[in-house]
Amino acid sequence: MNAFHRLHALRMENDAHRFTMDEQRPRFDRIANRHANGTAPQAIAVHQLFQTPPDLALRMARLADIGPGTTVLEPSCGLGRLLDAIATQEPQSVTACELSADLCRHLYAREEIRLLQRDFLTVDPAELPLFDRIVMNPPFTMRADIRHIRHALTFLRPGGLLVALAMDTEQRATALRPIAEEWHHIDAGTFRQEGTETACVLMKIRAQ
């Protein structure tokens, strides 16, 4: 092969490499800017974070009879599974509360909600307007679900509806079933993919 043909072959090879790099450049740019554009993997470690399975979240939103014109509170929103389900019912407005800063930074970009980074049990009903609907999956540890549900009821306007999950135990039934309009047992396997085998109850309570 003479010098001309060798140079021509090298040029063709370089052109092929440049074409491949141009194709891959957007991928490398995304990697280089991963912390700015949100594509970097992010670890989240939050005690007692067991997200509501999407099918159950939608069932809860429908049970709450949410619709246009209704105002909704989600007191322990985690990563927003219930918020996603609530949004499908087209409420007038949604207020959410979440204690974890690590979780909240995933929610601040959601312009359709008012987000409070607070322990819900420290929020005074006087700080917020009364709501038409409350949909919640509260923490269960140390019977916190009982306290959260009772506290949430103070944020409902008369005739408003609260739909909540709680652990399926005798203590929860004693504390909450007498005031529930509906009480449904949820199989323990429902939350298997979320990392727990806890059996739950789904309740609907109407404010007096």
Task: Provide a compact summary of the structure.
By secondary structure, the protein is α/β, with parallel strands linked by helices. The protein contains 7 helices and 7 strands, in the order αααβαβαββαβαββ.
Q: What attributes does this structure have?
A:
208 residues, alpha/beta, Rossmann fold, seven-stranded mixed beta sheet, 7 helices
What does this structure look like?
It is a single chain. The chain has 208 residues and is of the alpha/beta class. 35% of the residues lie in helices and 21% in strands. It contains 7 helices and 7 strands. Strands 3-2-1-4-5-7-6 form a 7-stranded mixed beta sheet, with helices on both faces. Strand 1 (71-74), helix 4 (81-87) and strand 2 form a beta-alpha-beta unit. Helix 3 (54-63) packs across helix 4 (81-87). It is elongated, with a radius of gyration of 25 Å. It starts with a helix and ends with a strand.
- In terms of structural class, how would the helical and strand content be classed? alpha/beta
Summed over residues and divided by their number, the pLDDT gives a mean of: 86
Largest sheet composition: 7 strands, mixed
* Number of structural units classed as domains: 2
DSSP strand tally: 7
**CATH class designation of the largest domain:** Alpha Beta
**Second CATH tier, the architecture of the largest domain:** 3-Layer(aba) Sandwich
Order of SSEs, N→C?
A: HHHEHEHEEHEHEE
* Beta-strand fraction estimate: 15-25%
Helix run count: 7
CATH fold-level name of the largest domain: Rossmann fold
- Residue share in helix: 25-40%
Specify the overall morphology: elongated
CATH superfamily of the largest domain: Vaccinia Virus protein VP39
Q: Strands of the biggest beta sheet: in what spatial order?
A: 3-2-1-4-5-7-6
